[in-house]
Amino acid sequence: xxxxxxxxxxxxxxxxxxxxxxxxxxxxxxxxxxxxxxxxxxxxxxxxxxxxxxxxxxxxxxxxxxxxxxxxxxxxxxxxxxxxxxxxxxxxxxxxxxxxxxxxxxxxxxxx
Length: 112
Description:
single chain; two-stranded antiparallel sheet
């Protein structure tokens, strides 16, 4: 086994390095893949000779984690707004015999 080409030089922080890429299949979960890569990397680090280091140089899942956080935040705000609107409606129609029927609610009747 060997490299396809020896015309490339990989450097990490200015030092010569060995590059090993991990590409995620389209139907795979990127977050699961990077978690398993990091777990396996810990095993590899324990077996490396003295003076040799291994690290993840680039992790594209930071964007995915950020997007998930933003979606959860937006959904939380939306649920809170819906709850506030429902309670405001119920508070306004608290005098109604049927809280869900606006047609019978005296506070929704047109004022004369």
